[in-house]
């Protein structure tokens, strides 16, 4: 026997919906305006919305409040809507949904993809009590004009989607893409940037940054980074770059917000640990001054920053405020952390 959800007592409705997956909640909301109102009254939680943009499709991944239950919608344009599907409307947009494939389809002949995405995005936000974190991923072969980065998006990843070789992009693409995110709390760059970046790059303003193939760009971006945490992999820089970072921190000329930095060289043998022992005045670890372990729980999407074991780090002090930091240089890696 079928029991209509709307005929059940409200507390029963609420209990049922709180045990439903978030994608099912969204699907249910399209049944009627009354159903949408009932869902909103249940004050459900949504923790994350992740957009993945491709040239012809956009994928929306939803995650519920307990950190699991990840489900995706794949949205793409079509010249016309198939008669086999029930045609629905959202703010005068015609679309249809395949429950089996979790697909949202809409008419290319009448509406732009980004305009429809905006209405679909707002529709999802209206259903849930909490404001979710909003992330975005895209690739270097995607037309920038097709990329819609929504307001309140805080983390943005430029993916390397080629499995055979590392993709290459130019700095203009980087700046145009990451400038779409006004409040850039987290940035991930996976391809190689093949021309010189500016010291005023949007990446220098990111709160947290992971640069997978920094190469020569580390000279500019690391030395002008204004955020909290940064990692530069596959880097190409010398002792003087790291020395500049350390000295500017000590003099309080830059890096006032810095909490940790890691520069990993592309090859071994580039850094000289003895150079820093000779030219940078530092002190050995004193357990009375700071702990042995530097814990870092910062994440950008699924990338987790590294915590440091600092017993063999040396310590430096910023004279202006007395703050301490620690660093370690090996032949291929520089690690730096600031103590609260």
What structural class results from the helix and strand content? Answer: alpha/beta
Largest sheet features: 15 strands, mixed
> What's the gyration radius in Å?
25 Å
Low-confidence stretches are none
Indicate the proportion of strand residues: 25-35%
**Count of structural domains:** 2
What is the count of β-strands? 21
Protein name: F-box domain-containing protein
Domain F-box: 2-54
InterPro entries: F-box_dom
Outline of the structure:
This is F-box domain-containing protein. With 340 residues, the protein is of the alpha/beta class.
Would you spell out the secondary-structure blueprint of this structure?
Layout: H1 10-18, H2 22-29, H3 33-41, E1 46-53, E2 57-64, E3 71-78, E4 88-90, E5 93-98, E6 103-107, H4 113-127, E7 133-139, E8 153-159, E9 168-169, H5 171-178, E10 186-189, E11 192-193, E12 208-211, H6 218-221, E13 229-235, H7 239-250, E14 260-265, H8 273-279, E15 293-294, E16 299-300, E17 303-304, E18 308-309, E19 314-317, E20 324-329, E21 333-338
Parallel strand pairs: 1-7, 3-6, 7-8, 8-10, 9-11, 10-12, 12-13, 13-14
Antiparallel strand pairs: 1-2, 2-3, 4-5, 5-6, 14-21, 15-18, 16-17, 19-20, 20-21
Can you offer a commentary on this structure?
The protein is of the alpha/beta class. The chain is 21% helix and 30% strand. The chain contains 8 helices and 21 strands. The longest helix is centred in the middle third of the chain and has 15 residues, at 113-127. The radius of gyration is 25 Å and the shape is elongated. This is F-box domain-containing protein. InterPro entries: F-box_dom.
């Amino acid at each position: 026997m079928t029991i209509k959800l709307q005929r059940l007592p409200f507390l029963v409705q609420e209990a049922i919906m709180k045990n439903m997956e978030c994608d099912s909640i969204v699907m249910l909301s399209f049944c009627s305006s009354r159903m949408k109102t009932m869902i909103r009254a249940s004050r459900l939680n949504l923790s994350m919305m992740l957009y993945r943009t491709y040239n012809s499709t956009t994928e929306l991944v939803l995650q519920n409040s307990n950190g699991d239950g990840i489900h995706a919608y794949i949205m793409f344009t079509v010249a016309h809507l198939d008669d086999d599907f029930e045609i629905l409307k959202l703010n005068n947009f015609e679309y249809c949904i395949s429950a089996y494939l979790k697909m949202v389809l809409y008419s290319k002949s009448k509406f732009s993809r980004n305009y429809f995405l905006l209405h679909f995005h707002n529709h999802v936000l209206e259903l849930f009590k909490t404001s979710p974190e909003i992330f975005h991923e895209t690739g270097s072969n995607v037309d920038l004009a097709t990329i819609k980065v929504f307001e309140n998006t805080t983390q943005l990843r430029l993916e390397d989607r080629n499995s055979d070789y590392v993709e290459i992009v130019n700095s203009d693409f980087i700046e145009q893409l990451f400038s779409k995110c006004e409040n850039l709390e987290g940035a991930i760059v996976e391809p190689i940037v093949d021309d010189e970046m500016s010291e005023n790059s949007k990446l220098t303003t990111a709160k947290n940054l992971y640069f997978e193939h920094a190469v020569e760009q580390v000279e500019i971006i690391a030395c002008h980074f204004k955020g909290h945490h940064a990692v530069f992999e596959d880097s190409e820089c010398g002792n003087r770059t790291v020395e500049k970072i350390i000295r500017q921190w000590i003099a309080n000329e830059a890096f006032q917000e810095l909490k940790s930095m890691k520069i990993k060289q592309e090859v071994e043998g580039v850094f000289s640990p003895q150079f820093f022992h000779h030219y940078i005045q530092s002190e050995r670890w004193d357990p009375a001054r700071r702990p042995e372990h530097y814990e870092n729980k910062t994440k950008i999407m699924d990338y987790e920053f590294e915590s440091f074991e600092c017993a063999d780090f040396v310590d430096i002090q910023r004279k202006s405020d007395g703050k301490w930091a620690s660093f370690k240089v090996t032949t291929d890696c520089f690690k730096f952390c600031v103590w609260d």
